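ok trying again, last paste got cut off:
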Amino acid sequence: MKLHILYEDNHVIAVEKEAGILSQQDSTGVPSLPDMVKDYIKKKYDKPGNVFLGLVHRIDKPVSGVMVFARTSKAAQRLHQEFAGRTAKKMYIALVECDRQIEPDIWIECEDRLVRKRGYSERADAGSRNVKTARMRYMALALNDHYALLLVELFTGRKHQIRAQLASMGMPVVGDDTYGSKERLDDGSICLHAVYLSFMHPTKQEPVELLSRIPERILGRIRFSDALQLKIESTIKSSV
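nice, full thing came through this time. structure:
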């Protein structure tokens, strides 16, 4: 896979993760995105030995979008604190199955109590144990007879949060059969994309804003235009 670099300096590197790529190494030994980024750094800068790369956040395997990594231990510590403290800002584009009325162009906030089951999360019943509060908001930017294109902003970072919360409202992410989507994409991806990420640079102490390209698997299912792209960008800008 050819890496698409969004930002790079001596302290951090940000790339676009493709759907289907692991955001961290697991027991299978399949190459992960950190492996690919390390290889890129090693070759570009002709570095001998092991390359340091700090993982500070994750994206689910079938999801694509912006990921940032630390290139030094000091940057890793500071970025981890940002993400753990929820001061880094993350927004997603979600294409969902939708046969209900949604008022477009307004933010709708939702808060749920989620509980982890084996391999997925679900809205917790009263009295459930080990529940965690999940908060986010979403805005419908485009609609047709089958789908809604949503901009989603996370306020908490629960496992599968967007996927579980949208599914609980009857709006599963397209392709996400784990959460009730009627469609399945051939490559196993889902129509969820981390489109925007902002954080404070760990050494320069200045804001970094990253915007990612919306993939074709999403664009091909809803009428997309330059005007819609500008609408997405202006909505993000006005909410940060």
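cool. The radius of gyration is 18 Å. The chain has one domain: 5-239.
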